[in-house]
């Protein structure tokens, strides 16, 4: 299955970046790559199921290439297939300061979902999510 989405990998965990055309999928992927993530796929991500996981990869024709709007197509170090750990939707804004756990349901399974439209520091936040997960507690922070 091919999704209109970009994907990066960080320490063996994949992030599926969703959103309408022009939402900033490639821009977010580039920002995350600047922090050490590796490109899996830009704009079209191939998904399959294996061992109870959703695996993301790039169609061969676009492997190692990413669009930088206003600059052109850039070559990038390409990551191979990666199990997805998280999805972000750049087409939806998160209304809650401390949102409930959300999920993206696709035919291959479910993924934790972050709503990311209009968020600043999203790249660093998502890298930390991939690194350490989400603490689902009732703690409230004032920061």
TrEMBL record:
Cited CDD domains: HprK_C
A matching Pfam family:
Hpr_kinase_C
SUPFAM superfamilies attached here? Answer: PEP carboxykinase-like
Q: Where is the signal peptide?
A: none
Tell whether Transport is among the UniProt keywords: no
Report the InterPro entries cross-referenced here.
Answer: Hpr_kin/Pase_C, P-loop_NTPase
Could you tell me which residue ranges the HPr kinase/phosphorylase C-terminal domain spans?
2-77
**Keywords of this protein's UniProt record, alphabetized?**
Kinase, Transferase
Please give the name of this protein. Answer: Hpr(Ser) kinase/phosphatase
What taxonomic classification does the UniProt entry list for its organism?
Bacteria, Pseudomonadati, Pseudomonadota, Alphaproteobacteria, Rhodobacterales
